[in-house]
Design goal:
- There is one protein chain.
- With about 160 residues, the protein is of the alpha/beta class.
- About 40% of the residues lie in helices and about 15% in strands.
- Strand 3, helix 4 and strand 4 form a beta-alpha-beta unit.
């Protein structure tokens, strides 16, 4: 009768406590690939007081496979960056003219910060004013885009994102 009793030894192979998958288990591959894609995705902080312009730039950036966070002011952007709530920002793209703090002032604050100065900043404006463009580039802007921003502008930025 002792031979008829079930043996508990084979049970651990089907137990959820198995730590490593079998070498041929294909279910592991998609998880690994998805994690790599997330790690390689670049994060752009888009700053513009116009909700329409924020939506346009976000749509263009997302269609180019960037992760995008949008905010309505330079002050809010600095607040989020300073508090460490956006620790993985690879680029800031900001409108030049905004109430409270301009994109130019945001650029200067970012470049003066030991914590943020490595983040590339791109300025956007609907006004093509050569001395404004020059001043922004001299202060450390990576680029200056004229609005409306187009997908070709975003492809130009790809090499500047860190």
């Amino acid at each position: 009768m002792a031979a008829a009793a079930p043996s508990p030894a084979p049970v651990p192979s089907s137990s959820p406590k198995v730590a490593s998958p079998k070498a041929g288990d294909r279910k592991v591959v998609p998880v690994t690939v998805a994690e790599e894609v997330v790690l390689e995705e670049k994060h752009v902080l888009a700053v513009d007081d116009s909700s329409v312009d924020r939506a346009i730039i976000a749509k263009i950036l997302r269609s180019s496979k960037y992760r995008v966070t949008t905010v309505e002011s330079a002050t809010r952007a600095l607040e989020l960056l300073g508090l460490g709530l956006l620790p993985d920002v690879n680029m800031i793209i900001t409108d030049y003219w905004m109430p409270g703090m301009t994109g130019y002032e945001l650029l200067k604050r970012v470049k003066e910060s030991s914590k943020l100065k490595e983040i590339p900043v791109v300025i956007m404006s609907s006004e093509n004013v050569p001395n404004r463009i020059s001043r922004c580039l001299e202060e450390g802007a990576e680029d200056f885009l004229l609005k409306p921003v187009r997908p070709s502008d975003v492809s130009r930025l790809c090499n500047r994102i860190r």
